[in-house]
Amino acid sequence: MLESNNLVTFEGITNSTAYHTFLLDEEKGRLLVGAKDHIFSFNLLNISKDNARIPWPASPTRKDECKWAGKDVPRECANFIKVLLPFNHTHVYVCGTGAFHPVCSYLEVGRKPEDGVFRLEPHVENGRGKSPYDPKLLTASMLIDGELYAGTSADFMGRDFAIFRTLGKHHPIRTEQHDSRWLNEPRFLGVHLIPENDNPEDDKIYLFFRENAMEGEHAGKATYARIGQLCKNDLGGHRSLVNKWTTFLKARLICSVPGSNGIDTHFDELQDVFLVSTKDPKSPIIYGVFTTSSNIFKGSAVCMYSMTDIRRAFLGPYAHRDGPSYQWVPFQGRVPYPRPGTCPSKTFGGFDTTKDLPDEVVTFARSHPAMFNPIYPINNRPIIVKTDVDYQFTQIVVDKVEAEDGLYDVMFIGTDMGTILKVVSIPRGSWHDLEEVLLEEMTVFREPVAIKAMELSTKQQQLYLGSDIGVSQMPLHRCEVYGKACAECCLA
Amino acid sequence: MLESNNLVTFEGITNSTAYHTFLLDEEKGRLLVGAKDHIFSFNLLNISKDNARIPWPASPTRKDECKWAGKDVPRECANFIKVLLPFNHTHVYVCGTGAFHPVCSYLEVGRKPEDGVFRLEPHVENGRGKSPYDPKLLTASMLIDGELYAGTSADFMGRDFAIFRTLGKHHPIRTEQHDSRWLNEPRFLGVHLIPENDNPEDDKIYLFFRENAMEGEHAGKATYARIGQLCKNDLGGHRSLVNKWTTFLKARLICSVPGSNGIDTHFDELQDVFLVSTKDPKSPIIYGVFTTSSNIFKGSAVCMYSMTDIRRAFLGPYAHRDGPSYQWVPFQGRVPYPRPGTCPSKTFGGFDTTKDLPDEVVTFARSHPAMFNPIYPINNRPIIVKTDVDYQFTQIVVDKVEAEDGLYDVMFIGTDMGTILKVVSIPRGSWHDLEEVLLEEMTVFREPVAIKAMELSTKQQQLYLGSDIGVSQMPLHRCEVYGKACAECCLA
Q1: Cα dihedral sign for B202, B205, B206, B211?
Q2: Which long-range contacts (CB under 8 A, 24 or more apart) does B109-113 make?
Q3: B297 touches chain A (CB under 8 A)
Q4: Could you give phi then psi for residue B73, rounded to 5 degrees?
Q5: B223, A325: Cβ pair inside 8 Å?
Q6: Among the listed residues A1, A28, A11, the one whose alpha carbon sits nearest the alpha carbon of residue A457
């Protein structure tokens, strides 16, 4: 364990790796970290002191089966923790890959910090549709009202990707299977609940992912960044789309730099998403980190999106095509009522549950999961573009900082070379012309490993970072590093 | 005039610029250069000695009209020479922009070098369809059997782009007008006659250009590189396509680096083309210089194409779509006979001239100018890729050099920063794995100006280079620069 430059680092343990799944519990002052075969609990004040760990390896039988299936034993045939979500006041829901056989369980963490409880329930349940089988794949998950929403891969081969809702009192529900219009080799990166209005019946779940462009959407192969929406109270269809989402819609997120010749430079590989709350809980600002799809031209960008633009896309025309030899066009025909994507609620009236939806609505929803209009970033361009450097962005968190002249969004951007950029976007004259100012660039890990997890504690004013080789902790403001004179001023 | 590093430079004259149009006459030992308001004649042995020039400005009336039309006087309202082509043994055909009013004339150059004749005929003819109006635009032209083939812009506004055949005994002929499927804002870069077989009736003219992708061919705006074909003996249609080409076809030239994720990095902005002859006159190797379309990621590449692959694309399926909301698909229906694109000749029989073509052939040709299959480079990837440098490629010539271990193609690549790269592509084990070796990088012009013209004299073993600020001459091999010991070995 080393401490230098205000950085506290937990250098990992010999038989673990992949410190990628974080759960921040500010109330109890702990950071839970899921890694290979282990769950860790760190003290938020200082991760190098007072930490605990629970080994949770895959069973020898599962390991053997995984090995016989031709998988790499140390890299694949272990239990890589992929889900760590608060279940109730005393328990955390935890899932891992279980050597290509996903498993879930409950972690008891006690009611109060002083209880010091940290214990894994011995009962293990099937983790299919919750954790991926392959540790290289991702799960984006959220637990709310006892229900688990997870975008993940649900089979051994890594072909069946879906958005699931499991646990809770309802029958499990998922996206339509074997339909590349719904999902086309997606990689899920985030799930968030964002209220639509004051009526919780209209609450929507938004998923962020990247996937292959739909057939006919692009000449040649391409990756598109997406936002998907679901109604929290979706119970699936009655005759069609039974136990499938009836309110799923997706739209493309564009992050591109306009070209003087009319040809834009696209950053399509969405890597991470962070939501910054505003006074209006219905309208967080969405920060997305993107990289290029080319392996010749490597670059990264950060784009900001508004919920107004996102909602406008979902209320716009559906993408439609009459057959494989047609182009995708905005659907011009009559859209059935209630408009697919609308949640069953008193707000729009007429129906209590998605099971009551008219057949034509469900049929339409099934064949029109994508919106025609993409969502452009605020100001139609990235707020940060980074090219000609040997690293790419992987993660982002944003801290709201009050400076003398107003409120600033300070971005902490993790890279694939183990460094963190601290950047602030300052209006150059007007809010339509932002200037990025790099405040600091810090090396967090002793090796150039990718930063795969990032959590921000506003209470502790600390940043926590995960990689393959360990966990690091860093104060948000490191003014004292720059000497006492500077400490009074700085955003650094 | 400076001489250094074996470089001979003509530094231009004060009231001219744009030394962009070259005509090499190895027999008479002269290099003719068309520039702003002047035609120059240089001695191939040493361009700084014994050179002559003829001023050919636009008339004061044309200059005034050009100025009144709101054009920039020094940069646009002059006679920029765009065409310099051998007409017969004693005359050269020359055209210029004529202050946005194209003009052509004949330049008398004498029969033998010792005649020393260099005189412009006073008679001036209309240059529409031969030289562009706007000096920023290009003409790719070729004169054969008294007929001028020119790909250019044919109107004041720079909207009507076309491939013309003028002069000669036939009625002028051109591409279909106002049809973006035929040409979509093209920029013409080269024209070459390549025989199809031993029968001259089958001779084809190939044009190289870049243009906007056809509507529906690409998501968003994009540039595609193209090769177009025409029959030399095309006389146009009888009822339809009267005085229009009936044998015009185009295909996309792809120059891309395959990506490990299946997403290729494309270089689509074709800048220049050079044909290297082989033992078989029907099968030259085509070298193309490409740059990227992005203004964020700048890079250049060189791709090589074989005539076999090109002919296969033109004999493959036609690109077809049933309407604006359809995709472009390979045409699956019955192709009328004789297959559009075939030249009228005894080889394929049945018709003597394109005027005898059945109506359905002409109708099909009119609506199917593009081929569905693109043409991939030899080995499916560029032979040279250059990124992370502050210059882009503009021009290429290739010299065949006999080394001890065989014949090498030595490329001289001009850049937009006034430099020349001398590169050789050497097989690494097999011909499918080429290794580029940069032999030399030379600064040719004292300012970082783009190299806009390049000619290679194999007889003189010299390279001639044109830019906005002058003309330079450079020996192909500069072994002596590297000292006597090295001189015996080198490709340099």
Answers
A1: negative
A2: B109/B25, B109/B28, B109/B30, B109/B32, B109/B41, B110/B28, B112/B28, B113/B27, B113/B28, B113/B29, B113/B30
A3: yes
A4: -60, -60
A5: no
A6: A28
Cα gap A479→B326, rounded to integer Å: 60
Instruction: Report whether the peptide linkage leading into residue A338 is cis, meaning its omega lies within 30 degrees of zero.
Output: yes
Q: Are A149 and A93 in contact (CB under 8 A)?
A: no
End-to-end CA distance of chain A: 25
- In whole angstroms, what is the distance from residue A445 CA to residue A424 CA? 23
Kindly list the residues from chain B whose CB atom is less than 8 angstroms away from the CB atom of residue A264: 220-221
| Cis peptide bond upstream of B338, omega within 30 | yes
Q: By CA distance, what is B214's nearest residue in A?
A: A219
- Distance of alpha carbon B51 from alpha carbon B67, whole angstroms: 32
CA atoms within 13 A on the CB side of A67: 10
Q: Is B76 helix (H, G, I), strand (E, B) or coil?
A: helix
Tokens of B371: 């081929």
Identity (one letter) of the amino acid at B158? G
Q: What is the pLDDT of residues B431-481, one digit of tens each?
A: 666 778 888 899 999 899 999 999 999 999 999 999 999 999 999 987 555
pLDDT along chain A (492 residues), means of 10: 68 94 95 97 93 95 96 96 96 97 96 89 95 95 96 94 95 95 97 94 96 90 97 95 97 96 96 95 96 95 97 97 91 94 83 92 96 96 93 96 82 96 81 78 93 96 96 83 47 50
Place of tokens 């946005």: B100
Cα distances from B291 to residues B20, B34, B191, B387, in angstroms, run 20, 26, 20, 10
If one counts every other C-beta atom within 10 angstroms of the C-beta of residue A180, the result is 11
- The 8-class DSSP code of residue B488 comes to T
Enclosing H/E stretch for B105: strand B103-108
CA A378 centroid distance within chain: 20
Q: Which helix (H) or strand (E) holds A367?
A: helix A359-367
Q: How far apart are CA A465 and CA B278, in angstroms?
A: 61
Judged by a CB distance cut-off of 8 A, whether residue A380 touches chain B is no
Beta bridge partners of A25: A30
Half-sphere exposure of B450 (CA within 13 A, CB side): 9
Measured between alpha carbons, how far is A173 from A231 in angstroms, rounded to an integer?
12
Question: Which of A293, A324, A325 is nearest residue B261 as measured by Cβ atoms?
Answer: A293
Q: Tell me A175's DSSP state.
A: P
Q: How many CA atoms lie within 13 A of A453 on its CB side?
A: 31
Exposure letters B15-49 (e unless 16+ CB within 10 A, then b): ebbbbbbbbbbeebbbbbbbbbbbbbbbbbeebbe
By the 8 A CB rule, do B248 and B313 touch?
no
Alpha carbons B81 and B360: distance in angstroms, whole number: 42
How far apart are the C-alpha atoms of B326 and B210, rounded to whole Å? 24
Percent helix, percent strand, percent coil in chain A, to nearest 5: 10, 40, 50
**φ/ψ bin of B458: left (φ > 0), alpha (ψ from -120 to 50), beta (otherwise):** alpha
State which residue of chain B sits closest to A260, comparing Cα positions. Answer: B295
Does residue B92 contact residue B143 with C-beta atoms inside 8 Å? no
Residues 229-268 of A with CB under 8 A from B: 257, 259-265
CA distances from A329 to A317, A324, B225 (A): 9, 13, 27
Rounded Cα gap, residues B33 and B468, in angstroms: 12
Q: What local confidence, expressed as pLDDT, does residue A488 receive? A: 45
- Interchain contact, A261 vs B223, CB within 8 Å: yes
Domains in chain B, start-ordered, CATH in brackets? 18-391 (2.130.10.10)
